[in-house]
UniProtKB/TrEMBL annotation:
InterPro entries per the UniProt record, alphabetical: FlhB, T3SS_substrate_exporter, T3SS_substrate_exporter_C
Location of the region described as Disordered in the Swiss-Prot/TrEMBL record: 1-26
One term under GO cellular component: plasma membrane
Alphabetized SUPFAM superfamilies for the sequence: EscU C-terminal domain-like (SSF160544)
Gene3D superfamilies, sorted: secretion proteins EscU
Topology in the lipid bilayer: Multi-pass membrane protein
GO BP field: bacterial-type flagellum assembly; protein secretion
Gene expressing this chain: flhB
Family: Belongs to the type III secretion exporter family.
Compartment(s) of residence: Cell membrane
Function: Required for formation of the rod structure in the basal body of the flagellar apparatus. Together with FliI and FliH, may constitute the export apparatus of flagellin.
Record field: transmembrane: 95-116, 136-163, 170-190, 196-213
Protein name: Flagellar biosynthetic protein FlhB
Length: 360
């Protein structure tokens, strides 16, 4: 049986998932981030590449073209350095911003925001030669190696197919001017990279799917692990049982004190019992002083009989009071009429007159 064999057949609980997340055990693929960064960078070059080239050409013409210049003035050299840095920074800003956003998004869509400062702490087990050797030749690394080889083959095939479609244009480069050759090669490089990025993205999505599946398998629990987790979350069964006994005793003590002072007990007739008390001088409305079901209801009925508290069988009223009113709380206005009828009957039996409940 799975229980005896210790097989992991039970889906992980929310607590186990949360604990694994806090330890950094999440589904992630570094290839997905790399593919998004590559696509974002390539897209940014398509949009702002011309402006970047024009900036570099302009800087080259201004500082390396024309007459040579030399200066020993530190202020002049610093000003020129700052000018060049600012121009290059502005030209590279779209590219760098796209890459940073892609990297952040790539991590966030996989596992959201995750802050693990403990991972930065030194861990000597990471440099253990035996464990390192075991990790190198583990099944997971062998699978990753095979997937890496497959990825290289796919990327190579995509690049080869696209370059093969451009063979005729490549052979005609000798007839073009240097500027045209540079433009063609740049365009060829960008579109090749874009296709490679799309292929890598598809492979990365497959890799992430595998990592997610593997994580789910790793988090599955044996019946024994599930029992241990429930025991740790709920506490020792003996302590829990003792806590229930104490809670029941406290409730019975409250019932023992409240029921003898009640004016009436409304029943359902045996499953539920609700004890009511009403003092027109101090209470705005009748108050539920005790209520219970099952054995507690039987205890309330017995106490009421022992102390001469009237017991009235009103099934709908008993259900409404038990369901909507907590102990030591006044009844709601929509039950005033029904409770007033019961109290009027009880007071009639005692030869008294009860005023109608007044608003709080």
């Amino acid at each position: 049986m799975p229980d005896d064999a210790g097989e992991r057949t039970i889906e992980p609980t929310q607590h186990r998932r949360q604990k694994a997340r806090e330890e950094g055990h999440v589904a992630r693929s570094s290839d997905l981030v790399s593919a998004l960064v590559l696509l974002a960078g390539t897209g940014a070059l398509l949009v702002s590449g011309r402006a970047l080239v024009e900036t570099v050409v302009g800087l080259t013409e201004r500082h390396l073209g024309g007459e040579a210049w030399l200066t020993t003035d530190v202020n002049t050299a610093s000003a020129m350095f700052l000018e060049v840095t600012q121009e290059i920074g502005q030209a590279l800003a779209p590219l760098l911003l796209a890459v940073v956003i892609a990297a952040v998004v790539g991590h966030f869509i996989q596992f959201g925001f995750l802050f693990l400062p403990q991972k930065a702490a030194p861990d000597l087990t990471r440099i253990d030669p035996l464990k390192g050797f075991g990790r190198i030749f583990s099944l997971a690394n062998i699978v990753r190696l095979l997937f890496g080889i497959f990825k290289i083959l796919v990327v190579g095939a995509v690049a080869a197919v696209y370059l093969a479609s451009k063979v005729d244009s490549i052979f005609l480069l000798g007839a073009l001017l240097p500027g045209e050759i540079a433009s063609f090669l740049a365009e060829l490089l960008v579109w090749t990279t874009l296709r490679l990025g799309i292929a890598l993205l598809i492979l990365a999505i497959l890799d992430f799917g595998f990592q997610y599946w593997k994580r789910e398998q790793d988090l599955k629990m044996t019946p024994q692990e599930l029992r241990e987790e429930l025991k740790n979350l709920e506490g020792d069964p003996q302590i829990a049982a003792r806590r229930k006994v104490v809670q029941r005793q406290l409730m019975l003590n409250r019932v023992n004190q409240a029921v003898p002072k009640a004016d009436v007990v409304v029943t359902n007739p045996t499953e539920l019992a609700v004890a009511l008390k009403y003092d027109p001088e101090t209470m705005a409305a009748p108050v539920v002083v005790a209520k219970g079901a099952g054995l507690v209801a039987q205890r309330i009925r017995k106490l009421a009989e022992e102390h001469g508290v009237p017991i009235i069988e009103k099934k709908p009223l008993a259900q409404a009071l038990y369901r909507t009113v907590e102990v030591n709380q006044p009844i709601p206005e929509d039950l005033y009429a029904a409770v007033a009828e019961v109290l009027a009957y009880v007071y009639h039996l005692k030869g008294k007159k009860v005023p109608p409940p007044r608003a709080a």
